[in-house]
């Protein structure tokens, strides 16, 4: 059953976040947008969505894609993407945001522990049985308090998704040293999102030139370091909002100048304001 939720009801713009306890906690979204434009951003979890009506246009893995009604959207964890309407009357969809470790847990149960978290190569898939299974799962998580049924449908849907649409990601061959240095910068921004660090300081940390760091970081993670830092701050803000912090405190503790600065970036990424997300 739902544990927390936030609702937004403006003209043709509706977003409802819920958090279920299964698999240690998964965020769900039911949304209907008309004019919403999501800026390029990333999530710590995957995005698995079913288009209920209209169509969505979005960027992922170097190209733009259109997801029409009944298609499934797949965005891998930490993968940069955006989103807007591709239909005159907007689009509506259901989505969940499982974390890599939750998918990895299922891979272990499938005897595929060495595979780690899955990689979904196709941004949009057309799989009617899979879409219907996801819809049934969302409906059950919304309406049933039968834990066995809820877990059964969630596990089954995620395992089916892995078996039908994932593969092991082929890592491009790049110098190992550069990969390690870029990962060091990413982990620093993940672990200390609120710290006011300069590009030169990051470059010194990695032992790279500032220009090389910008170019290679964006190439590997889809965003330049400063934009990636904003995403890390948004993730921290979500966590603190769930813990009940006041929004002004959230803004300052996450490295934003003030509450309006937090709200502007939060809305561009999440589609709702922090205040609505907190309700």
TrEMBL record:
<dbReference type="InterPro" id="IPR018060">
    <property type="entry name" value="HTH_AraC"/>
</dbReference>
<protein>
    <submittedName>
        <fullName>Transcriptional regulator, AraC family</fullName>
    </submittedName>
</protein>
<dbReference type="Pfam" id="PF12833">
    <property type="entry name" value="HTH_18"/>
</dbReference>
<keyword id="KW-0010">Activator</keyword>
<keyword id="KW-0805">Transcription regulation</keyword>
<dbReference type="GO" id="GO:0003700">
    <property type="term" value="F:DNA-binding transcription factor activity"/>
</dbReference>
<dbReference type="InterPro" id="IPR037923">
    <property type="entry name" value="HTH-like"/>
</dbReference>
<dbReference type="Pfam" id="PF02311">
    <property type="entry name" value="AraC_binding"/>
</dbReference>
<dbReference type="InterPro" id="IPR009057">
    <property type="entry name" value="Homeodomain-like_sf"/>
</dbReference>
<feature type="domain" description="HTH araC/xylS-type">
    <location>
        <begin position="183"/>
        <end position="279"/>
    </location>
</feature>
<dbReference type="GO" id="GO:0043565">
    <property type="term" value="F:sequence-specific DNA binding"/>
</dbReference>
<dbReference type="InterPro" id="IPR050204">
    <property type="entry name" value="AraC_XylS_family_regulators"/>
</dbReference>
<keyword id="KW-0238">DNA-binding</keyword>
<keyword id="KW-0804">Transcription</keyword>
<dbReference type="InterPro" id="IPR018062">
    <property type="entry name" value="HTH_AraC-typ_CS"/>
</dbReference>
<dbReference type="InterPro" id="IPR003313">
    <property type="entry name" value="AraC-bd"/>
</dbReference>
């Amino acid at each position: 059953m739902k544990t927390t939720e936030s609702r937004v009801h403006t003209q043709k713009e509706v977003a409802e976040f819920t958090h279920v306890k299964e698999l240690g906690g998964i965020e769900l979204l039911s949304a209907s947008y008309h004019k919403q434009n999501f800026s390029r951003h990333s999530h710590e979890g995957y995005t698995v969505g079913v288009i209920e009506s209209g169509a969505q246009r979005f960027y992922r893995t170097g190209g733009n894609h259109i997801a029409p009604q009944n298609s499934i959207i797949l965005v891998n964890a930490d993968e940069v993407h955006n989103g807007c309407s591709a239909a005159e009357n907007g689009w509506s969809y259901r989505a969940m945001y499982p974390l890599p470790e939750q998918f990895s847990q299922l891979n272990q149960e499938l005897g595929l522990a060495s595979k780690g978290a899955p990689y979904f190569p196709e941004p949009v898939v057309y799989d009617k049985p899979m879409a219907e299974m996801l819809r049934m799962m969302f409906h059950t998580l919304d309406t049933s308090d039968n834990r066995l049924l809820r877990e059964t449908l969630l596990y089954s849907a995620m395992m089916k998704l892995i078996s039908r649409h994932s593969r092991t990601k082929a890592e491009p061959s790049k110098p190992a040293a550069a990969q390690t240095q870029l990962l060091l910068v990413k982990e620093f921004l993940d672990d200390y999102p609120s710290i006011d660090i300069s590009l030169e300081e990051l470059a010194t940390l990695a032992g790279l030139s500032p220009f090389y760091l910008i170019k290679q970081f964006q190439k590997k993670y889809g965003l330049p370091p400063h934009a990636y830092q904003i995403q890390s701050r948004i993730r921290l803000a979500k966590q603190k909002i769930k813990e009940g912090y006041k929004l002004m405190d959230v803004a300052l503790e996450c490295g934003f100048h003030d509450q309006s600065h937090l709200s502007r970036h939060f809305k561009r990424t999440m589609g709702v304001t922090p205040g609505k997300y907190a309700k």
